[in-house]
Amino acid sequence: MYSNHTLRPVTSAPVTPVPSWQDEALCAQTGADFFFPEPGSSVREAKSICGRCEMRSACLEYALDNDERFGVWGGLSEKERHQLRRRG
């Protein structure tokens, strides 16, 4: 069976480069489960890891600049970042 449809190249969305600080962040050595917990789960372990991370400020800045709405970034939960944006 033949088709008269024209094939077009598939384009993808631009890929955002990984910020350089992420390679040095403690979370890169831990695993995402702590930082993206199920709703209602504790974020205590993620915040503890963030508290020891030298990249914490860069991480939080990235999350705020890129409107990250899920997970723990820079030691703050989604709710805490939302409150920070509202105050800012």
Characterise this structure.
The structure is a single chain. The longest helix is centred in the last third of the chain and has 10 residues. With 88 residues, the chain is mainly alpha-helical. It is globular. 17% of the residues are buried. It has one domain.
List the SSEs and their pairings.
Blueprint (H helix, E strand, L loop, with lengths): L43 H8 L4 H10 L12 H10 L1
Count the beta strands: 0
Mean pLDDT: 87
Low-confidence stretches: none
What is the straight-line distance between the termini?
61 Å
Shape: globular
Number of domains: 1
Keywords:
32% helix; 88 residues; 0% strand; mainly alpha; globular
Describe the structure concisely for a colleague.
This protein is mainly α.
